[in-house]
Amino acid sequence: MNGEQLPLLRPMLAVSSEPFDSAAYLYEIKWDGYRGLAYLDAGTVIRSRNLINLTGKFPELAGLHKKVRRLPAIIDGEIVVLVQGKPSFASLQSRGKMAGAGQNSRAGFYPVVFIAFDVLYANGKSVLRQPLADRKNILKEMVLPGDDILLSRYVFRDGIDFYNACVKEGLEGAVAKKVESVYLPGRRSASWKKFRNTREADLVICGYQPGVNGRGLGSLVLGGIRHGELVYQGKVGTGFNSREAEILLDGLHKIETADAPLEDLPVNERGRTRWVRPLLVCTVVYLTATAGGYLRHPVFQGVRWDKSPDECPAVTGE
């Protein structure tokens, strides 16, 4: 379908940054969905950042090649579900977990759209080395917007105001992209910078999982209080350096227990988890929570010695 002219590529990635203003950058919404490269020729194939074929999960996107000129082409974008005009990751997850007849029957309830924001190949030829500003113009000429594909809008210069507007609307954040930047497949580049809108929560450390080869601290298992009971909220494995991890692990060893404080820990996590008495509270920042109440992209901020576990209400999902 996608022809020998179109190479298999991974998308370019952004680095984290604080919001800033610059005439050298354009700014667009950080869409809360599944990143994908759309390979368009006689048909449509959409692959994830890990090269997984996502096309079958989202049958309403199978006709993207009919909405794009200058084929064969590769377009970079995000698969999202829009609820009241805003991306809903929880609704997208519900779609992503379905397959076959069940998937098709629910497509009307959670229709997805491909938000296009870059182009890698047009007319079967690479445009990777062309500046982003030129690629944006090419993309605008190529795409015929509709129910299944939209163009990501952007602004110039005013990155801080744009980010604040995104936060006010409850969006995940914004991305700054250098106007003169080339496209670097599979690389995380400082030419693209993401401004994330994060949230904060205090949660109970209920256990931990060892690191690689069973050494050191891999992640903390977290819980929150709901209706007087601890419920699982996910794991956090970033935000602490090696020295902090060593100190944490030493303290956790002293309060290990055979009794599981969480009854709803997923089955696939149980064998790796070592339980501790739920005495310690930590602060994490995160992007959003899933419908099941699991934190997305949590980062450890530190132990809260001034708080008790009963002061840690569970985070609720979308």
Automatic annotation (TrEMBL):
<dbReference type="InterPro" id="IPR012310">
    <property type="entry name" value="DNA_ligase_ATP-dep_cent"/>
</dbReference>
<dbReference type="InterPro" id="IPR012309">
    <property type="entry name" value="DNA_ligase_ATP-dep_C"/>
</dbReference>
<dbReference type="InterPro" id="IPR050191">
    <property type="entry name" value="ATP-dep_DNA_ligase"/>
</dbReference>
<keyword id="KW-0436">Ligase</keyword>
<dbReference type="GO" id="GO:0006310">
    <property type="term" value="P:DNA recombination"/>
</dbReference>
<dbReference type="InterPro" id="IPR014146">
    <property type="entry name" value="LigD_ligase_dom"/>
</dbReference>
<dbReference type="GO" id="GO:0006281">
    <property type="term" value="P:DNA repair"/>
</dbReference>
<dbReference type="GO" id="GO:0005524">
    <property type="term" value="F:ATP binding"/>
</dbReference>
<comment type="similarity">
    <text>Belongs to the ATP-dependent DNA ligase family.</text>
</comment>
<dbReference type="GO" id="GO:0003910">
    <property type="term" value="F:DNA ligase (ATP) activity"/>
</dbReference>
<dbReference type="Pfam" id="PF04679">
    <property type="entry name" value="DNA_ligase_A_C"/>
</dbReference>
<dbReference type="Pfam" id="PF01068">
    <property type="entry name" value="DNA_ligase_A_M"/>
</dbReference>
<dbReference type="InterPro" id="IPR012340">
    <property type="entry name" value="NA-bd_OB-fold"/>
</dbReference>
<protein>
    <recommendedName>
        <fullName>DNA ligase (ATP)</fullName>
        <ecNumber>6.5.1.1</ecNumber>
    </recommendedName>
</protein>
<feature type="domain" description="ATP-dependent DNA ligase family profile">
    <location>
        <begin position="112"/>
        <end position="237"/>
    </location>
</feature>
